[in-house]
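Form 7-S
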Amino acid sequence: MDQLSFEERLDGIREISDQIESGKLPLEESVKKFESGMQMLSTLEKELQEMKRKITLLQEKADGSVEETPAEDLS
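Output:
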């Protein structure tokens, strides 16, 4: 099975949230969906942190050269 993209998984979390907020699910099912959504959010948060580490900001210096600044150095 192909792995879902970050965006597809985020949409899945939104869908879970909408289902819970609708109030139409039994309490037990709402809790299970909430737990599942929280696990998915945790995974996505870890991925975001990893992506942030990989992002490099390129800045042009006055002399025309380009300097790379890792994202973690920008915080």
